[in-house]
Write the structure tokens for this entry.
Amino acid sequence: MERTLAIVKPDAFAAGHAGRILARIYQEGFNVVGMKKLFLSEKQAAGFYHVHESKPFFDDLKGFMSSGPCLVMVLESDGAIRKWRDLMGATNPSDAGAGTLRKEFGTSLGRNAVHGSDAPETAAFEVGYFFSGLELL
Ligand code: CDP
Ligand code: MG
């Protein structure tokens, strides 16, 4: 079993899509081992996205991720990292395939509804950023 970090970003959370996204997560067979609603500060959002620090979109990303509450989850399944990224779809909602979450709920490249870890090392960092071991029993 593999674990990945998933976020219902502030755009989708504010629009009331968290319930439908969670329903898809269960339908696809993930086990939700951790879940919390958080309203990140700019500093907390910046720390989470530190790999993008030097990118031109970093300030917008940091501002957006701290603009309202989000739902942070740890999902578990066989091949959870790939499986969750497939369910999310491409980063830009306009490139995302039919039936993906970003296609359904994303509205722009910057406001694309959901986050998912992209590799085992990033998943380990991202899960540890938001959850302690005791919260994932
Ligand atoms: O989220 P994902 O792993 O698919 O994409 P990323 O390349 O790791 O970028 C992180 C987030 O930054 C994306 O989900 C977008 O919301 C945002 N982004 C952006 O606003 N403009 C870009 N040119 C690239 C990414
Ligand atoms: Mg990424």
Summary: The chain is about 40% helix and 20% strand. The chain has a mean pLDDT of 98.
